[in-house]
């Protein structure tokens, strides 16, 4: 396992204007619950696009002949809870051709990095039908690195099947303070069996769901999600590979262990039937979450994660106004 910091790795992937925008969206999430910044001025810095013009120090700007902005010490009472489904289905292939758990890990990295920028406390609940891994709330680089490394080790292709209901119920019991709960799972979940636990969690906390999309191995290419990406550009335009595995390569279902016969792949009737079933399932899951007031987003690859997370936070901020 590489020794490099996961926070440093995700920071290197993020462009500063986008990062500032994402952090700002998180600042504005619950205006009635916490402030965007504290009352104590930390230092001054030169204005850059994206800064709040209301924070300009006009006296300092006049002295320096350029706009200068006050930087405050963040005063935050945000508690973030990462609930990550690590059942063996999360080791299947995503729509971008990467293992789904790599996409899920990047979602966790981005959430942790945004929390680190604000000094928020983050806890982790991850697991499957056989185990639950917990990391208690904490802040700071060391805590977040431990949390992310612990999550990384939890993904295992030989793990039991997922049990999202168990994780949601554990989050409800363990989290007394009102929090922002980010659930990371796949496109088939939350299912009907998870609805009661999700509804109970939603009554106490704000809940967001990030769904990692499965590859469509029956199509000519890996294809796209049954739904539409919320970000500003299509996934293909973000640089992700869209290449189907060779028909000569054996494809195995990670949950059942069954192999997919090569002659079924690429057949139009089979492809259309699978696409219709996925679309219907996607609509059912989205309807369930809308009914419960849970906002969600789908991600197809690591190239989509930042745009989709920014879009999700933006929708939630606008809805809260």
TrEMBL record:
<dbReference type="InterPro" id="IPR002881">
    <property type="entry name" value="DUF58"/>
</dbReference>
<feature type="domain" description="DUF58">
    <location>
        <begin position="46"/>
        <end position="215"/>
    </location>
</feature>
<protein>
    <submittedName>
        <fullName>DUF58 domain-containing protein</fullName>
    </submittedName>
</protein>
<dbReference type="Pfam" id="PF01882">
    <property type="entry name" value="DUF58"/>
</dbReference>
<dbReference type="InterPro" id="IPR036465">
    <property type="entry name" value="vWFA_dom_sf"/>
</dbReference>
């Amino acid at each position: 396992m590489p020794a490099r910091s996961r926070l440093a790795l995700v920071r290197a992937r993020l462009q500063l204007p986008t990062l500032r925008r994402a952090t700002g969206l998180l600042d504005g999430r619950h205006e009635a619950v916490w402030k965007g910044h504290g009352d104590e001025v930390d230092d001054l810095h030169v204005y850059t696009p994206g800064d709040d013009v209301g924070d300009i120090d006009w006296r300092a700007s006049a002295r320096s002949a350029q706009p200068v902005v006050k930087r405050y010490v963040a005063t935050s009472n945000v508690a973030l809870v990462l609930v990550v489904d690590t059942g063996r289905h999360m080791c299947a292939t995503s729509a971008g051709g990467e293992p789904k758990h790599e996409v899920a890990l990047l979602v966790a990295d981005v959430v942790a990095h945004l929390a680190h920028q604000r000094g928020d406390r983050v806890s982790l609940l991850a697991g499957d039908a056989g185990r639950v891994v917990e990391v208690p709330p904490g802040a700071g680089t060391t805590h977040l690195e431990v949390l992310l490394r612990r999550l990384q080790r939890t993904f295992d292709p030989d793990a039991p099947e997922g049990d999202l209901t168990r994780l949601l119920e554990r989050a409800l019991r363990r989290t007394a303070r009102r929090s922002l709960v980010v659930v990371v799972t796949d496109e088939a979940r939350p299912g009907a069996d998870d609805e009661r636990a999700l509804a109970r969690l939603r009554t106490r906390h704000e809940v967001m769901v990030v769904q990692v999309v499965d590859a469509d191995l029956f199509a000519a290419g890996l294809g796209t999600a049954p739904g539409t990406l919320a970000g500003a550009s299509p996934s293909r335009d973000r640089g992700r590979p869209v290449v189907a595995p060779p028909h000569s390569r054996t494809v195995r279902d990670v949950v059942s262990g069954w192999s997919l016969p090569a002659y079924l792949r690429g057949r139009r009737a089979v492809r259309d039937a699978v696409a219709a079933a996925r679309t219907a399932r996607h609509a059912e899951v989205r309807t369930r979450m809308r009914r419960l007031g849970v906002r969600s987003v789908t991600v197809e690859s690591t190239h989509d994660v930042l745009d989709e997370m920014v879009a999700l936070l933006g929708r939630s901020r606008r809805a809260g106004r």
